[in-house]
Amino acid sequence: MKKLTIEDLEVKGKKVLMRVDFNVPLKGGKVADDTRIRAALPTIRYVLGKGGRLILMSHLGRPDGKRVADMSMRPCVDVLAKLLARNVQFVEDCVGEKVEAAAAQLKDGEVLLLENLRFYREEEKNDPAFAQKLAQLGDLYVNDAFGTAHRAHASTEGITRFFKQSAAGYLMMKELDYLGTVIGKPVKPYVAVLGGAKISGKIDVITHLLPKVDKIIIGGGMAFTFFKAMGLEVGSSLVEEDKVDFARGLLATGKDKIVLPRDFLISDALDVKARKLGNLKEVEAAQIPAGWKGVDIGPQSIEKFRTVLQDAKTVIWNGPMGVFEIDASAKGTFAVAGIMADITGAGATTVIGGGDSAAAVEKAGMAGKVSHVSTGGGASLEFIEGKILPGVAALTDK
């Protein structure tokens, strides 16, 4: 780490203002998945254990600068209190006199959670006055919200201008360490596995990774744009017509590196929202009939991908192999998750990008069997693309 870390700070008796990513799913007014809260625990416990006075801030959902009752941070209080086995204070705002008073009254080893930052439009606008109001709450600033590190917001980037010391928390350090290793110093053979619906969201990733990797496995809906570029029949599968030429160019430059599926599970109807598929059958990659669409990779593809992955020493995976939200079309994605777990056990470094890939690995029960599952979908993608993350760049250099 070329940036200050939590361990470089003297936190005892100090008010530590910490940006966390508690953007958790809520159901019936309760936290439905506490993964992101648990991910922040090492830094939280470190500050409290060292006698710091901890003030936590986060966003939740997209309230667009308005107070939205069911996007309050309040449900996170009970979950965090239970995980820490201690009282967690809450204040129904994130700036202003009431918040400043609550922060000032904190004692060593106590923790306070602020209300949703995005109840204010100024947060996403990176408004300097709003950032300064937030900064008044603490003596030191720690960013442990990797999931928002690619956004230059008031609580991630603007705020650092008002602190002498801004440091990375343990989660931020872990994310940068693993992602930095697979991008900067990967042990070879180095394989990328890319999936998801569209090639358009992964153009920069493919362009950035292609010269570095030994193989790049393409699955998911984006594979059909490549098959269309090869002149093959794809039925009514998802194709981005405006990206066919781009895919053709990639196939020309990376023909020895790009690995495409051999077969697919196809359906004559798909309703993702209702989680319903029509009739299903498995066909060779070039034999998808009109009116049918690919919804998952087939068994031959799984074995082909296994052959490529079994000797890999470094693997980065971003994007599912099919419509994994529906059980019948999740087999390919779950099989790749299983392969990831197997090769991790054999000594490979496996890093799973956030978002759908993280959800898929979690659903497959393999999250604890890979090297690292990123907590940030967009942030991990931008990091893989070689972009500078504003929330990281703003931290104090060592």
How would you describe this structure in keywords?
single chain, 6-stranded parallel beta sheet, 15 helices
Structure, described:
It is a single chain. With 398 residues, the protein is an alpha/beta fold. The chain contains 15 helices and 19 strands. The strands form 5 sheets. It has a 6-stranded parallel β-sheet, sandwiched between helices. The chain has a 6-stranded parallel β-sheet with strand order 11-10-9-17-18-19, with helices on both faces. Strands 15-12-16 form a 3-stranded antiparallel β-sheet. The longest helix has 15 residues, at 170-184. It is elongated, with a radius of gyration of 23 Å. It starts with 14 loop residues before the first strand and ends in a 5-residue tail after the last helix.
Low-confidence stretches: none
Task: Give the number of DSSP strands.
Answer: 19
- Overall helicity: 25-40%
Please indicate the percent range of residues in DSSP E strands (runs of 2 or more).
15-25%
The end-to-end span amounts to 8 Å
**Major sheet:** 6 strands, parallel
Instruction: Please give the radius of gyration in angstroms.
Output: 23 Å
Oligomer: single chain
Continuous helix count: 15
User: How confident overall, as mean pLDDT?
Assistant: 95
Shape: elongated
**What is the SS-derived class?**
alpha/beta
Spatial strand sequence of the major β-sheet: 5-6-4-1-7-8
